[in-house]
Design brief:
The complex is a heterodimer of chains A (293) and B (293). In chain A, 71% of the residues lie in helices and 1% in strands. Chain A has 14 helices and two strands. The C terminus of chain A is likely disordered. The chains are: A mainly alpha (293), B mainly alpha (293).
Chain lengths: 293, 293
């Protein structure tokens, strides 16, 4: 039995195709990103090794830090919005009818392609015919802004569809975590005279903490590498006012044909994401006790 | 939360308190319904303007249909904008990559959960860590690798990338199921002299039908919606998928609201239909796949 189940040929046959694929498509590229970042390279011609020049330029690049600031702002907003999602999930778990239907409806935007969502929100934000400004005008706002053309508000306008897209996802996760809390704990607390807010704060919140920490990682890292809607809706504009790290990288590589510098940004992005994940995981270093089914 | 308070107070059996209970519940439902409207309203508006011409979009109230809904918008874009080609490309690429990912993922999961070999936990770790790596950090090297292999503007570049990047989450969802699967039948079969291949394909794989359905639908949603790889690797219309095709098509017809609406509806309809019939599996897959990492 053991001999059959440790047949090296069969193990190689089962594991190697996927393993080689993931090495070739995921791991080798991230090593190459780091290496390309040490070169001056336009993507086609010969590479020119320049050491850490790209990284030094990156540290002094105001446009990059500007875009990094935008990514960070998105991370802060995503993090704060988690509180709202948690409250909605607590409402959902309050033994109401049609809960299943609600959480499914909430999830719909997350299932749609970023391009479709981006194009739809371009229309929603349309200065004259978009539904948002139509509504604002109908309730008395005379001159609603051209949301995506104003450098001072474009970034916040973009956050709305981004948060809209992922809200259902986090509500779903929180709901699942809260459902996992044994009803007996809540009953016992009620008998001891705890009110609903105390139950939420003292019992449900601590027991859902593991999941909350995971969602913080997801939200923060997801925001730091965010690209899709911003790329389609404003392409970082107007004039860089909605540029984020990933879109800046894309522009440097595939528009300015500075593959070396783009790779340096890509590598920096990777390092930031791994460090942030590691830090938040460290803060949450207890074993995962919550099971989903 | 508030309902809990109301419920406790309601325990006093006085009429006014019973009133408070139902008031509390009503408030909770209002919150839930308001969130549901926020999530769905933009899509309803999209459906409405996809059935209008420009004049009707600009002159009629946003949430009204013209006397004759303009279904011809759909006919027009289906053939005129290459949308039929993009749609078929999306279908076959989604199906092929999903099947490959699930077969390869199942083989790896089987080898990791059932077979005895050194390095099995290390290999599993490689797959799990890959989940944290931002796609954008691999984009430039992947572009240059595929370029060297003459796979730029070739569907194989998409297939390889999709399979590799969806492999970790696929394995993660399969893993929980494989661990929970009883092993007696497999062990008996091996003792009876059944080969590992036979055990896997004839006994194990058929038993994992339900989890394959879950991972399958999640894979399909991701592949159907993927944007950045197609946008970067594919340039000819013959291979573009719907996300990039829609993006380009809309870029050319920015002023025809009805055509844009119809295009967007066509691109999201398959997902909405899948959601209608498979929402339980989608919810399950998203909850299982996102949190455990």
């Amino acid at each position: 039995m053991d001999k059959v189940m440790s047949n090296k040929w069969i193990i190689a046959l089962y594991v190697l195709p996927s393993l080689l694929l993931i090495l070739a498509i995921v791991y080798i590229p991230i090593v190459l990103t780091g290496y390309y970042g040490l070169n001056k390279w336009n993507g086609i011609g010969a590479m020119n090794f320049i050491g850490l020049d790209n990284y030094q330029a990156l540290i002094k690049d105001k446009l990059f830090w500007n875009s990094a600031g935008h990514s960070l702002l998105l991370a802060v907003f995503s993090g704060i919005s988690l509180i709202l999602y948690l409250i909605i999930a607590m409402v959902l778990s309050a033994k109401l009818k049609a809960v299943n239907l609600f959480r499914k409806i909430y999830l719909i935007p997350m299932l749609l392609s970023s391009v479709a969502i981006a194009q739809l929100w371009l229309k929603i934000f349309h200065p004259t015919n978009g539904i948002l400004n139509s509504l604002l005008e109908s309730i008395g706002f005379a001159n609603p802004p051209a949301w995506l053309a104003e450098p001072s508000i474009v970034l916040f306008a973009l956050f709305i569809p981004i948060l809209w897209q992922y809200a259902g996802f986090y509500i779903l996760i929180y709901y699942a975590a809260l459902k996992n809390i044994p009803a007996s704990l809540e009953e016992a607390a009620k008998i001891d005279g705890a009110n609903a807010f105390q139950i939420a704060y003292k019992i449900k919140l601590p027991l859902a903490m593991e999941v909350i920490k995971v969602t913080i990682v997801l939200a923060v890292v997801g925001s730091l590498k965010y690209f899709d809607l911003i790329y389609v809706m404003t392409d970082g504009g107007p004039n860089g006012s909605s540029e984020v790290m990933a879109s800046y990288m894309y522009h440097q590589a595939f528009r300015a044909y500075d593959f070396g510098y783009g790779s340096a940004i890509g590598f920096f992005l990777l390092v930031i994401c791994l460090i942030v994940t590691w830090i938040i995981r460290k803060l949450t270093a207890s074993k995962d006790t919550i099971q989903y089914s | 939360m508030m309902s809990g308070t109301a419920e406790q107070l309601g325990g006093g059996a006085k009429n006014s308190r019973a009133g408070l209970v139902s008031l509390g519940y009503t408030l909770l439902y209002i919150v839930l319904i308001a969130v549901a409207i926020l999530q769905v309203f933009p899509l309803v508006w999209l459906l409405f303007f996809s059935l209008k011409n420009n004049q009707e979009v600009f002159n009629l109230p946003p949430l009204s249909l013209p006397m004759n809904p303009r279904w011809e918008n759909y006919e027009k874009v289906w053939s005129a904008g290459n949308i039929d080609v993009y749609f078929l490309n999306s279908v076959w690429i989604t199906v092929v990559t999903t099947v490959i990912t699930i077969v390869l993922g199942s083989l790896v999961t089987y080898a990791i959960t059932r077979m005895k070999w050194k390095g099995s936990s290390f290999v599993l770790g490689l797959f799990m860590v890959a989940m944290m790596i931002p796609v954008h950090s691999t984009l430039i090297p992947l572009f240059s690798i595929f370029n060297k292999l003459h796979l730029i503007d070739h569907p194989l570049s998409l297939i390889l990338s999709y399979v590799a990047f969806n492999m970790p989450i696929t394995i993660m969802i399969l893993l929980g199921f494989y661990y929970a699967l009883p092993r007696e039948v497999e062990e008996a079969a091996v003792i009876d002299g059944c080969s590992v291949n036979r055990v896997f394909f004839r006994i194990v794989l058929p038993m994992t039908g339900s989890v394959i359905a879950t991972t399958g639908i999640i894979n399909m949603i991701y592949n159907w919606n993927e944007f950045i790889f197609v946008n970067t690797f594919i340039s000819s219309d013959a291979y573009k998928t719907l996300t990039v095709g829609v993006q380009n098509f809309i870029g050319q017809y920015t002023t025809d609201w009805g055509a844009i609406g119809a295009t967007l509806m066509i691109s999201i309809l398959p997902i909405l239909i899948a959601f209608l019939f498979l929402s339980d599996r989608i919810v399950e897959g998203i909850a299982a796949g996102s949190v455990k990492g």
